[in-house]
Amino acid sequence: MNTILNFAPLGIIIIMLGVGMSASIKSFLEVFKNLKVLLIGLLLQIVILPIIGFLFASFTSVDTVFKLGIILITCVPSAVTSNYISKLIDANVALSVSLTAITACLSFITIPFILKIVTPIILDNTSVFQELNFFKMSLSLLIITTIPVLIGVFLKTKFSIFVEKINKSYSTISLLIFLVIILAAWFSEWNFIFSLYKSIGFLVTFLALTILIVSYTLVNLLNLNEANKKAIIIESFVQNAAMAIIVGGTVFEIESGYLAIAAVYALLQYKILLLLWATNKIFKKINKS
Fold it and tell me: Structure pTM?
């Protein structure tokens, strides 16, 4: 676990730099032209998801450390894989990248605010939060998320030809780093996670399905076009479990309950998406025949 915490922040910096290089000032401006869609995506990611996390933490009878894991996984930005998935399902990729980049940039404010100000109100065990330093937490997240994204956007804007040449390879590297962090978390705590899978598996599955249903319902109520719907749903659903692992370990340095929630959610979110994709394919074949 210590090895993960020592090297994972560097991995997140590399990933966030890639997120920035996937965006550009031009793509941001295009997305900002449809401000309603952007605000809906940000509302879901920054406000509604943490509320879902707080509700689960408040009404589930699990240890405080697991409640903290639930809150962590719902307050981190979307994962870099959301951009790949958006491309595969013909979603609005520019919107997806913009939401990933903006939520990552804002995370140095949103995550410390949620963990230091709001979470102690929800959780009974406030001793965990007494020594948290809001400024230190914000500075750490600024360094590993916001600054790399902004540098990436700058590189994309100023050196677009060079970035275009390396973007495919860099994206692959970023994806591999993300997967290594998750897999390392799984293997470093395999016995712990495996023993808890039966007790928290249903809870995390229910959490993931709730997020999926809430985001799907909201975008359909607001009559967005299909590409924007898909992008916002994926951005809300695919959470950055690697960042939840790093933030939890770096900030709290407590038992691995937060890691178990993040690692299980990371696995389940892709299982659920794969199942939905396969089901959709089957129904399309049936309808054609």
Answer: 0.81
